[in-house]
Amino acid sequence: MPKFTPAELDAHKAKLLAAAKKKAIIKVGLNTCGDAAGALPVMLAIKEAVAKAGVDAQIVKTGCAGMCGIEPLVEVSIGGAPATMYGQVTAEAAREIVEKHVVGGKVVEAFKVPSIAEMSSDKPVAGKQYRIVLRNCGVIDPESLDEYIARDGYQALKQTLTAMTGEQVIAELETAGLRGRGGAGFPTFMKWKLTRASRPGEQKYIICNGDEGDPGAYMDRSVLEGDPHAVIEGMIIGGWVIGASKGIFYIRAEYPLAIERIEKAIKQARANGLLGTNILGTGFDFDLEVRLGAGAFVCGEETALIASIEGKRGTPRPRPPYPAQKGLWDQPTMVNNVETLANIAQIVLRGGSWFGAIGVGRSKGTKVFAVTGKVKNPGLIEIPMGTTLRQVVMDICGGTTTGKPVKAVQTGGPSGGLIPASLLDTPITYEDLQKLGSIMGSGGMIVMDESDNTVDLSRFYLDFSIDESCGKCAPCRIGGTQMLRTIDKIAERKGTAADIAKIKRIALTMQRGSLCALGQTTPNPVLSALRYFESEWTERLLPAVKK
Amino acid sequence: MRGLGAKVWSDTCKEPPMAAAAPADLATIAKKWKDKRGSLIMALHDLQGRYGYVPRDAAQELGKLMDVPLARIYEVITFYNYFKLEAPGRNIISVCMGTACYLKGAPEIVAKLSEKFSVKAGETTPDKMFHLQQVRCIGCCGLAPVVTVNEKVLAKVKAADVIDQVYACAVKGA
Description:
The complex is a heterodimer. Chain A has helices spanning 6-18, 32-37, 39-53, 91-103, 116-119, 145-150, 155-163, 166-176, 188-197, 219-226, 228-242, 256-271, 302-309, 338-350, 352-356, 389-396, 430-435, 454-468, 474-491, 497-513, 517-521, 524-532, 534-538; strands at 24-29, 57-62, 74-78, 84-86, 112-113, 205-210, 246-251, 276-279, 284-292, 333-337, 359-360, 363-364, 366-373, 379-384, 406-411, 417-420, 444-449. Chain A is α/β, with parallel strands linked by helices. By secondary structure, chain B is an alpha+beta fold. In chain B, a hairpin with a 2-residue loop joins strand 3 (147-149) and strand 4. In chain B, strands 2-1-3-4 form a four-stranded mixed beta sheet, with helices on one face.
């Protein structure tokens, strides 16, 4: 394997683009969800059928194309024509597709579903999907460095290392207006700037937060599985800008395929001079390692995550000092979310002003959501900020499966809140969602229909958060449990109006007094349910006793 | 999560932990991680990968090799949901309790399995053949509700069919 210099990287890319293409390209989605839906037997059936028919076809395994409800997905493209996507493909259907479409050139209508291109727009328009983070997911083979390079891979790294200064990269990020995609929305340029300025010359670290803990969300898993090199490229650029020589991927142990693909991609990058010593011949040394989470939601909080990487219990500590000053092993550390990092290379290549023109207000660019629950087309979508909730739920995801009206949408998981159907025209921005008592969150979006009960759902989230409380600070540890007891009392129809007041009082204490975001946001699902669906709570109360 | 399994090493649980557990394995794990700063959790992942759980004796032995007190190991494995303190049984049935699965009927599935095997979530059948557990989101929300039996993922499961599906995937014999 060659160690690339900048010129060799370009030459290699040109060679890849010029290489003769096979007549037919057949792509099979093989992420965790594709595998679960039975994509492996489909892949085997395709291989056999292609071999048997003796056609000139390339069979590629790709990441997630986003239509998770109709996996396994197979995409066929012949002679460079627009691709046809097939959904819910069985081994038998796969043989039919090879025979009729790949060999015979006729689309098999019975299994046809909208393709990625048909589902997304090539311009960033609110209400339509637009792919920046997911641009390679479902398109390239995530285990092939060549396929990434052919799609402008590592061009942004080349550009930063050879033609930019750290300040210039930070300035582009500032113009872009990129904010943390883990949920809190802290301006990314600020984090990079603070860590760059902090204690120059000392050992620094960059950490990729892949501890996706929101139950019901899988954006980060899909990106890590579908386009690992994009996240790695973002890490290397970040490391170079802040002056770090070491980066760490912190990934949930529950995501074995994501871990495997990242480890493989790291090895490929290292073997090609894109990682390790003297990157692209520029003299920059930077390397990456993977550390596994072990099932603790609180480790998504950056100080808890750092404690976990140090091999300790993942309990948060008060900030300041922020990780930019004192992070991993007390050295300056920058923690960025997977999706944030996956945006970096595109911003560098296409410019901060391109990115900054997408979105509305102070929410720029796109956001990836995992839309699930009672929705017709559950899946992974990427939309420009400012798209409304209604456009996502009704237009992109097709409304409810049950045909019953949408009752509410939940964003932000256990830290977020419910948004009632009457407010579905709210644009998706950090500020608008916060105003409604929810948060952007990392990208979980759960659709509920009229048959779902908000008391039960908020109880479900509260139970989750209590269980995940690390127990360090009293408001979170005690407050959550007391709140749950009070809710149970109401659920059993033994509560009174005083109990509702008590829930609100405990919530306030938790919001003001908890050490970290977990405790501060634990009451959100309950408060939003009380705010928008109060009657569901009051109808369970005991009648007031007359004195 | 409540239901993930015991979070104490019980005295009654005298598994023959490492009959096959050659200390050589532990030495390999210790050697791999000892000099890497903060690598205790990674070493414990390897240990659990080897035994299916973290046996007390193995933890103690690993602690000696890595120069980490048993109390530190205990502190860490009781904090993280992923680590098990008892042998989980021959077949591990995991019902996803992510929000999407929860809304689409995961609680009914747990109830059904619980009734069939006469165990609560987090428990193992007396013959050690089945271990029933609830897990956090496994990230296949589009296919909710999801159940995994050992490595096999079952998608869009219905409570009525789950018992048959579990038996079809289960490993038989001791």
